[in-house]
Amino acid sequence: MRTPERLRPGLKILGLLPLYFLISIFCFYSSVFGFQAEPDTTVADTLSAWEMNWVAGINGSQSVYSNWSKGGTNSMSLSSSSLILLKYEKNNFEYEFRVRARFGKARIQGQGVRKTEDLIRIRNRFLFDINPDEDSDFRLFGNVNFETQFSEGFNYGAGPEGEDLLTSDFLAPAYFTQNAGLAYFPQADFSIEAGLGLRQTIVQDTTLSTRFGLDEGEVFRLEGGITTGINFELEVMDNIKYLGTLETFTNIHKSFRRTDIYFSNEFAGRVNDYVNVTFRLDILYDDDFSNRLQLSQALSAGVTIDIY
CA dihedral defined by 4, 217, 293, 117, rounded to 10 degrees? Predict the structure, then answer.
């Protein structure tokens, strides 16, 4: 059982979390009002530079069998997703705030309720065109990102007596990353970037510390390293869009062979204004957790609503 003394350092670290959001907001306002080329810009002009989009979706499935000769297992699943995108663009400065959240559960006969999806990802992105007069493809960038999950995750039935083993939880882990460098935009829907960055790993449940590369009992780790990224969007055909992201982080104190890699692929298709079909394939390599690739794949159909 954890003692109050062990929890106290973690609480001090967690108490600093709001500071990251305050820094992000401060950087944004400083950038917006500090890089204005026209000092007499009006409030109306500033507001017209904003774009906002909020999309929410619900996906579900159900299977019921009764005296079915071919067999089957009764099941029901439900998942929800939300994407909030706030963008500011004026002169040679751009800012993007993106929040992506997903959560889903399934009830399977004889196995109870199990989690199927769980994600909280917040991204703050700053871009500054270093030579706007020449229509340059190069920009300075800065990112302040955060990622965790909503609830507990388990390796079902993996215990020595068949019990479920806790593998993760809210803020266990959580990742804060800050990086800056140079980005190359050969076209609007494709970019390559490289820079230097910091990453903070937080594991508020100390029973999981060693699972994510921290020493036993620790709740916080700071790393510095080299970051790279590729972002790609493609209109595959009418109403079908592909979104791809490749991100890497290489700790300067570790071998390049231990580089963390996150590769996300999403195909999103719209049947009509409300019904959508989505296929996602995420591949992750993080040798702090495992020396094997982690893979997540989901195919879903449901209802999507443009809230704003």
Answer: 0
